Amino acid sequence: MIHVDWDGKGTAGEVMPSDFSHVDVWMQASSDAPLWSDTWTYSGNKLDPALWTVLQSSTGGEHAYTVANNRLTITGGSDLLATRDTGARDYTVTAADLRVGEQYRAGVYARYAPGPSQTWPYKERAVYALVRRRAENPLVLYVDAATSNREVPLPLPAGVTPEALTLALAVRGRVVEVLVNGNSVHTATLTESEFAELDGTAAGVYLEWPQSSVGQLTVTPPAITAPARVGQLEGAGGIVVSDQPYNQGRRFHFVAVDRSGNTSAASAPATISTRPLVPPDLVGKPIYGDKIVANSITADQLAVGSVTAGAIRAGAITADKIAADAIDSKTITGATIRTSASNPRVQVDSDGIHAWNSSGTRTVDISRATGAADIAGTLRTGTDGIRAVVTSSAFGGYPGVHFTGLAEAPGFEPTVHAREDGTLWALSAEQTPNSSGRVDLIMRKGGAWFLGKQFGDSNASASLNAEGGGKLFIDGVLPRGMSNTRMLGFGITHVNPGAFSIRIDHGGTVTVGSPVPHCTIVTGAPQDGVTWGVTRWDNRGFQFNWSRGAEIDIHWLIVRSA
Questions:
Q1: What region, left, alpha or beta, does residue 101 occupy, with left being phi > 0 and alpha being psi -120 to 50 degrees?
Q2: What does the alpha-carbon distance between residue 504 and residue 532 come to, in Å, rounded to a whole number?
Q3: What's the domain of life for this entry (predicted)?
Q4: Is 397 exposed, middle or buried (0-12, 13-18, 19+ CB in 10 A)?
Q5: Which has the closest alpha carbon to 510: 483, 478, 491, 481?
Q6: How much of the chain is in helix, strand and coil states, percent to nearest 5?
Q7: Over the stretch 385-409, which tens digit does the pLDDT of each residue have?
Q8: What's the sign of the alpha-carbon dihedral 395, 396, 397, 398?
Q9: How many CB atoms lie within 10 A of CB 21?
């Protein structure tokens, strides 16, 4: 895991301004440089045992392979499996100039974890892709988990032969992808149990006798993606980012946001990567008590705080095992438990749970009798994912609730807040604050209200505004035509000279309410003495008649009423 901390100050150490809201924390993969790449330049015609684990079924127990001319070649026995740790679970392993040899198979391994045998069958756990000399489906993807095994036969792309090709295997979470000569040929998804059991971090190459060989073998991290928002800080403090792969850089930067949703430029980035604290073959695996020499771990070898209450067996600590001064400065006084005699402190007593800051202001007060809670600060419904944040400065310095952790990380997040004049504001998300457009709902005292689009293109906005006095102002564009559910429908029907009557279908079939038509005639020139009217209508249209056969435009409005 990675700890990201902020001192609560600006770039130059200055105090944050009065309208400051929070700092967004952003993370991005920092490099696509290979985790490692090998061109087989070892002395003594032997792989370096400090880097490579080699398994081989061969006569006389000798390593029957060569590392020469930038190639690894099997020269005897039956098979060779060479693996090397990557420190990660997500990567792409690529074998360049892979040659199957005269008879059997060769390929690449990912997420390898060793099995119980040093000779074939090794019973290893891994995902691997092999090319074999066979006319039908010469490419195979294998998934060998602890409790299941499966294989997926595949054809090679047209024109590709086992003589010399580039074979790659990419693993990203539960997704596995096979690539030949840089082109994807198959994608598979691991089951939940397969993903849990395939926890190895080694990659490697497999060769079968006679004369299978490989050129450069390279392991690269997943491609760099766009920065992702991983959390926010309202003041000095930190967040924890978990589930990051070992040895793969992560670049972090901060963006400050004020109470109106405006954002600062990004801070200078900082890059860090996780490192295993134990040898790779112990990463992610428990160490049980029967593997620890008795009395080899003593109190002076344990880091402060490394043994917590959850790790102590119930009843294991009794009075005779606690030194007389073991709880000094961590006072338990009668029915009171407190972290300090002075502020800041947290205290549990017969009245409930309380906290004070360094200035002596009570920040938390939870009543034992009623359960009522007063909290001065920020209350969150979670630490990741979509969540609500109750804060004293939700928007423009007003208290309320905003929602964070949304997809695409909008610059302005949905907010609900109240103001001193009695209005209640509900604001939707906006990708670019006060620019790209959002929806505001404003409810005022006395029954007045407003609902509509704010910011963005004003010519393409729509709103309802009830200012009071029973009046409702509607802004927007009335679309042509009618539907089953619209309240108002509008249309224009053109009629050439010579007609005196027309049936107009407005485009909807209204089953609830009655679509009442209202019509008028608009022409290019005055038509003196022309009279018109609607003779009948139904739920789909109406009949319109006029007294003189002139060329006309009929403008009609449908009002759906009860």
A1: left
A2: 14
A3: Bacteria
A4: middle
A5: 483
A6: 5, 45, 50
A7: 899 999 888 888 889 998 998 888 7
A8: negative
A9: 24
CB-count exposure of residue 360 (10 Å: 0-12, 13-18, 19+): exposed
Q: How far is it, in rounded angstroms, from Cα 141 to Cα 130?
A: 7
Kind and range of the H or E run holding 224:
none
Side-chain-side CA neighbours of 381 within 13 Å: the count stands at 11
Q: Is 536 exposed, middle or buried (0-12, 13-18, 19+ CB in 10 A)?
A: exposed
Distance CA 546, CA 526 (A): 14
Rounded CA separation 109/98 (Å): 13
Taking the C-alpha atoms of residue 517 and residue 514, their distance in angstroms, rounded to an integer, is: 10
Q: Are 177 and 170 in contact (CB under 8 A)?
A: yes
Report the distance separating Cα 153 and Cα 151, nearest Å. 6
| Nearest-angstrom CA–CA distance, 480 and 490 | 5
Quickly state the pLDDT bin for 33 (edges 50, 70, 90): confident
Dihedral class, residue 97 (left if φ above 0, else alpha if ψ from -120 to 50, else beta): left
76 three-state secondary structure: coil
List strands edge to edge, sheet with 139-144.
53-57, 79-85, 202-208, 105-113, 125-132, 139-144, 149-154
Which residue in this structure is represented by tokens 């003593």? 298
User: In 273-335, where does DSSP find H-type helix?
Assistant: none
Contacts of 270 (CB under 8 A, 6+ apart): 251, 252, 253
Residue 521 to residue 513: CA distance in whole angstroms: 26
Tokens of 186: 């198959």
If one counts every other C-beta atom within 10 angstroms of the C-beta of residue 344, the result is 14
Summarised one tens digit per residue, pLDDT across range 84-118 is 999 888 999 999 999 987 777 899 999 999 988 77
Q: Name residue 206's amino acid.
A: Y
Burial of 338 (0-12, 13-18, 19+ CB in 10 A): middle
Q: Report which residue type is found at 379.
A: L
pTM of the model as a whole: 0.46
